[in-house]
């Protein structure tokens, strides 16, 4: 079946992308406005885009009626944000912060979440999250009247002590993070069902062909 996205409309375009690009990691973003007010919201149009420099990308969608959430405004105003990752034990609290609250509401307080000070940016990090990225905005691209892509540079990474296997070599106990990802609709997926697959090496590939 062929779908021309310029013809199906924004709502169906969203459904097609969200139902097929999955699982998607969740960026639980904490921002702070110029007056010090805090905001938190989850975003699943998110991923790591590189490591030199360490870079993440956030796709921020606006409601056609209410406009952009506080997250987008705060990032554009201050250039700072913290991405927290979501373990399964915090999915209920994360879901609370997705509420369509009026502008200026502190979703962290609404969800009963404690924070810790960040080291290099003003917005705090979520204390219970096993991983937090302190970020500054490198650039933002307005890709449509109701969406913006923010490219952020990661300055500092916080990882829960009990999930660090070797700090000097940056070895992390990834399964212990117990992270969840977004699926389609209102569904989520766990990160425990994994399998390994070695990447092919050209020299070995050619050697096997020669043996045949």
Radius of gyration: 19 Å
Order of helices and strands: HHEEEEEHEHHEEEEEEHEEH
| Largest beta sheet: strand ordering | 3-2-6-9-10-5-4
Per DSSP E runs of 2 or more residues, the count of β-strands stands at: 14
Q: How many alpha or pi helices? A: 7
Task: For the record, give the distance between the C-alpha atoms at the N and C termini, rounded to a whole number.
Answer: 41 Å
Portion in helices: 10-25%
**What coarse outline follows from CA principal-axis ratios?**
globular
State which percent range the strand residues make up: 35-45%
Question: Biggest β-sheet, characterized?
Answer: 7 strands, antiparallel
Query: Runs with pLDDT <50, length 5+?
Result: none
Structural class of the helices, strands and pairings? alpha+beta
Rounded mean pLDDT is 93
Structural summary, described in words:
The chain is of the alpha+beta class. The strands form four sheets. It has a seven-stranded antiparallel beta sheet, covered by helices on one side. It is built from seven helices and 14 strands.
Give descriptors for this structure.
23% helix, alpha+beta, globular, single chain, 212 residues
Please specify the SSE layout and strand pairing.
Blueprint: H1 5-8, H2 10-20, E1 24-25, E2 27-32, E3 38-43, E4 46-51, E5 54-61, H3 70-78, E6 80-84, H4 91-96, H5 107-110, E7 115-116, E8 125-126, E9 131-144, E10 147-159, E11 164-166, E12 171-172, H6 174-177, E13 180-182, E14 188-190, H7 202-211
Antiparallel strand pairs: 1-13, 2-3, 2-6, 4-5, 5-10, 6-9, 7-8, 9-10, 11-12, 13-14
């Amino acid at each position: 079946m062929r779908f021309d996205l310029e013809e199906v409309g924004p709502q169906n375009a969203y459904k097609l992308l969200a139902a097929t690009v999955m699982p998607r990691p969740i960026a639980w973003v904490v921002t702070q406005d110029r007056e010090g007010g805090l905001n938190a919201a989850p975003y699943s149009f998110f991923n790591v885009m590189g490591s030199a420099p360490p870079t993440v990308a956030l796709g921020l969608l606006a409601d056609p009626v209410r406009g952009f959430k506080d997250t987008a405004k705060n990032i554009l105003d201050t250039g700072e944000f913290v991405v927290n990752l979501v373990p399964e034990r915090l999915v209920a609290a994360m879901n609370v912060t997705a509420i369509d609250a009026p502008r200026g509401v502190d979703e962290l307080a609404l969800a009963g979440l404690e924070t810790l000070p960040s080291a290099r940016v003003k917005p705090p990090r979520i204390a219970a999250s096993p991983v937090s990225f302190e970020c500054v905005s490198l650039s933002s691209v307005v890709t449509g009247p109701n969406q913006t892509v923010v490219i952020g540079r990661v300055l500092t990474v916080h990882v829960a002590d009990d999930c660090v296997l070797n700090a000097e070599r940056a070895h992390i106990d990834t399964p212990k993070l117990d992270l969840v990802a977004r699926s389609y609709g209102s569904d989520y997926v766990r990160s425990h069902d994994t399998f390994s697959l070695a990447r092919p090496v050209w020299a070995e590939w050619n050697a096997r062909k020669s043996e045949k």
